């Protein structure tokens, strides 16, 4: 496997395959969730499902081939809601929205071939990278707990403990099982944890204990074996209108989509690479330019596929933690997606309580970079903390990096150390302000 330099990256085909399957299992929810969100805006569920699987599968493979990094891609959460309920409004067709995404992706692709890409990377201080990694970790923990029903919206508080029932017990079983496997350094511990917990839930479903003897609220795992096959609905494939660039109502969304995707992608690259040690000799994410090119192409191709723009997924950290180090991991993840063009009901049967523990444990792992942060240096520690805490509180990786950059630059200015700010950081600072203003005052 000279194409992926497996020996140089200290990995094997077996390890990469396990890592790729693990990444898929932790992000497979997008196949169901993305169509569900866009369906709420009036789009056809099955049409978006096909587009979601197509872009996730094909472009994860492309990411692996171009970047030789273990990053998988799929339609971004948050971005899909923005596209569905803000961009796709009265008087604007879905084809025009897809045209806007293609244009935004083309802008990013052109930018990724210029010095701007490496410049923006150099603009992010090390301390902010550490904070972003930890913030993404907290973000994953919240997703894991909430999607599993362990934490819910409180009646008198923002959050509270959910019902202590059988699903709660299965989640805790998965968390303890996977933690034990990690402690014992068992290869494929994440995948074993997911499958083991799902099988136990399936056993409760088969014997009926969950709905009768133990917990009447238990939602059993149900697979409609008679209707697991369906031909793809290609209604949105290649349905785009590049005339969107002439529509004044779409000019700001085009730039917002581009900047949001750029910040989201860079922060994900930085966070996952710091945790997984996917760094070059200068301490930067390896193959960064090629990774950004692949990510930008993914955004552009989303418009051709017919779904909201796809981006690199933070759940890729699951595969990285399982030993994934090369593009072979991303290719395996992409191949796992493709069959679900036809067998989506099978995937919908995977319960959240079996994948949730993995996201929680990823949160633990993504706190490791904070060990390298000098907490006594407030000029570095405060912006890092702001970046870290804004990601889960605002439920947005993008806002984490925006607020982190704003605080970093402003504190340097107030401390009369503006000379320490390099030219690229000033450019990034301007981008951060533009993205914040556009998202909050111009849309």
Automatic annotation (TrEMBL):
It is found in: Endomembrane system. The chain crosses the membrane at residues 17-38, 45-67, 87-110, 130-152, 164-183, 190-209, 350-370, 382-411, 423-442. It comes from the Archaea. Keywords: Membrane, Transmembrane, Transmembrane helix, Transport. It is a multi-pass membrane protein. GO terms for cellular component: endomembrane system; plasma membrane. One of its GO terms (molecular function) is purine nucleobase transmembrane transporter activity. Its main location: membrane. Belongs to the nucleobase:cation symporter-2 (NCS2) (TC 2.A.40) family. Azg-like subfamily. This is NCS2 family permease. It comes from Promethearchaeum syntrophicum.
């Amino acid at each position: 496997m000279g194409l992926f330099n497996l020996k140089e990256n200290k990995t094997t085909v077996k390890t990469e395959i396990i890592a790729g399957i693990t990444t898929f299992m932790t992000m497979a929810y997008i196949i169901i969730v993305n169509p569900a969100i866009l369906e709420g805006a009036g789009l056809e569920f099955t049409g978006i499902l096909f587009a979601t699987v197509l872009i996730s599968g094909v472009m994860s493979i492309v990411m692996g081939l171009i970047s030789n990094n273990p990053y998988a891609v799929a339609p971004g959460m948050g971005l899909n809601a923005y596209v569905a309920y803000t961009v796709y409004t009265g008087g604007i067709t879905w084809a025009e929205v897809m045209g806007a995404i293609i244009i935004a992706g083309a802008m990013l692709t052109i930018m990724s071939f210029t010095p701007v890409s490496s410049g923006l990377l150099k603009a992010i201080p090390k301390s902010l990278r550490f904070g972003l990694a930890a913030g993404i970790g907290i973000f994953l923990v919240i997703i894991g707990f909430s999607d599993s029903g362990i934490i819910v919206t409180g009646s008198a508080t923002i959050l509270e403990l959910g019902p202590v029932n059988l699903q709660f017990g299965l989640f805790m079983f998965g968390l303890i099982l996977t933690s034990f496997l990690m402690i014992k350094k068992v290869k494929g511990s994440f995948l074993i944890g997911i499958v083991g917990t799902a099988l136990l839930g399936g056993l409760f479903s088969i014997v009926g204990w969950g709905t009768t003897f133990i917990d009447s609220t238990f939602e059993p795992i149900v697979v409609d074996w008679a209707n697991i096959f369906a031909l793809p609905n290609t209604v949105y494939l290649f349905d785009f209108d590049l005339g969107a660039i002439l529509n004044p109502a779409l000019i700001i969304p085009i730039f917002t989509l581009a900047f949001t995707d750029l910040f989201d992608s860079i922060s994900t690259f930085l966070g996952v690479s710091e945790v997984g040690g996917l760094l070059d000799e200068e301490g930067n994410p390896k193959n960064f330019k090629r990774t950004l090119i692949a990510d930008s192409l993914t955004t552009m191709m989303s418009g051709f596929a017919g779904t909201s723009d796809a981006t690199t997924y933070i759940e890729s950290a699951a595969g990285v933690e399982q030993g994934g180090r090369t593009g072979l991991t991303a290719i395996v993840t992409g191949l796992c997606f493709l069959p679900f063009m036809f067998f989506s009901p099978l995937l919908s049967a995977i319960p959240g309580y079996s994948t949730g523990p993995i996201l929680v444990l990823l949160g633990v792992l993504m706190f490791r970079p904070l060990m390298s942060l000098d907490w006594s240096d407030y000029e570095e520690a405060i912006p890092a903390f702001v970046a870290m805490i804004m990601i889960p509180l605002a439920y947005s990786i993008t806002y984490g990096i925006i607020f982190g950059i704003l605080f970093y630059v402003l504190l340097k200015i107030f401390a009369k150390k503006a000379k320490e700010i390099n030219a690229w950081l000033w450019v990034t600072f301007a981008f951060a302000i533009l993205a914040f203003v556009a998202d909050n005052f111009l849309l």
